[in-house]
Write a structure and sequence with these properties.
single chain; about 325 residues; alpha/beta; globular; disordered N terminus
Length: about 325
């Protein structure tokens, strides 16, 4: 889905940068029509749930969110079963972008870590993610190998290298509606002041949305909002992470316009799986699990089997029809 332009205030630099998403409205099973609507704006918060595989994308899409977020932690864990610590390759991730964007009826924001290398890698990653169907790409200033933003031991590259990556990313995109989300992880190791300095430098380099990772209090979040609030700001909501988990209204009051929830779904999935696997191991049957599983037929519909059933019905007699047609055809 294309992304158009965003504005946060009439007199700000943001009044001239991108951020209006066309919204695909729910249409009760009928073909949906894209209607332009401002999704990123002052006084509102765009809620982006984390998706990490085909099933989570289909369920989130069915729920009717206006945008989705392809989480690096969840995608790496789901696809490879390893930590989000720089172990996944560009190829691993761009193929996941292609799958999930193909399943989503709304814009998909995609985590691209550090861009998988130096400046040339960043250019290649931006072009690849855009071609694969992402609507926005998130790039961060960590050293390689990177680590999840709410875990310890993260180091950042020098600011001049980080800014250069954002400049290359902006230049590499084909469409101006493909958004560049610039993330800094400097807060944890270098402090809030350096994180804000980097955010401003990323904005000057052409980033569309700023993402200061892991502020540790509402006071820090308010400071980010005061000093970088002329730009669209993104908050990373991780249950059990470093950043306060707050209400939608409170995030808006602090100056944020976009909230990603990368871990909520896979943490819920993990708890559900631990329960049903535990019950199955203990009882050696699934009778105690029936109240903890979704309806099978409904899940089949979510997965697209309704199309399969309708297709099979519509084409049930096609081979017989072809056979009869061939019998009537004169021999040559």
């Amino acid at each position: 889905q294309a992304l158009a332009r965003v504005s946060t205030s009439p007199d700000s630099r943001s009044a001239a940068i991108r951020g209006l998403w066309p919204v695909l409205q729910a249409c009760d099973g009928e073909a949906c029509k894209a209607e332009p609507e401002a999704l990123i704006k002052k006084g509102d918060l765009l809620i982006c749930p984390g998706v990490f595989d085909g099933i989570s994308t289909l369920i989130a899409n069915k729920t009717g969110f206006k945008a989705l977020y392809m989480t690096g932690f969840g995608t790496v864990g789901s696809h490879l079963g390893v930590p989000d610590a720089g172990l996944a390759s560009y190829r691993d991730m761009v193929e996941r972008v292609r799958v999930m964007s193909g399943l989503a009826d709304c814009p998909l924001i995609c985590d691209a870590d550090t861009g998988f290398g130096g400046l040339l890698n960043v250019e290649h990653t931006v072009k690849g993610y855009e071609a694969a169907g992402a609507s926005a790409i998130q790039l961060e200033d960590q050293e390689f190998p990177k680590k999840c933003g709410h875990t310890p031991g993260r180091k950042v590259i020098p600011i001049e290298q980080a800014v250069a990556k954002i400049k290359v990313a902006v230049a590499a995109r084909t469409s101006p509606d493909f958004l560049i989300i610039a993330r800094t992880d400097a807060r944890t190791d270098l402090g809030l002041e350096e994180a804000i300095r980097r955010g401003r430098a990323f904005a000057d380099a052409g980033a569309d949305i700023l993402f200061v990772e892991s502020p540790e209090s509402e006071e820090e979040m308010a400071e980010i909002g005061r000093r970088l609030g002329d730009m669209p700001l993104l908050v990373n909501v991780v249950e059990g992470g470093k950043t306060p988990v707050l209400s939608k209204q409170r995030y808006v009051e602090l100056g944020y316009q976009v909230a990603i929830f990368p871990a909520t779904a896979f943490l819920a999935m993990g708890k559900a799986l631990e329960h049903v696997y535990g019950q199955l191991k203990t009882n050696e049957d699934s009778l105690s699990c029936k109240d903890h599983v979704t309806d099978f037929k409904g899940f089949c519909i979510t997965m697209g089997f309704e199309h399969v059933w309708n297709f099979d019905k519509a084409h049930a007699d096609i081979e017989d029809e072809v056979r009869e047609s061939l019998k009537k055809r004169p021999r040559v």
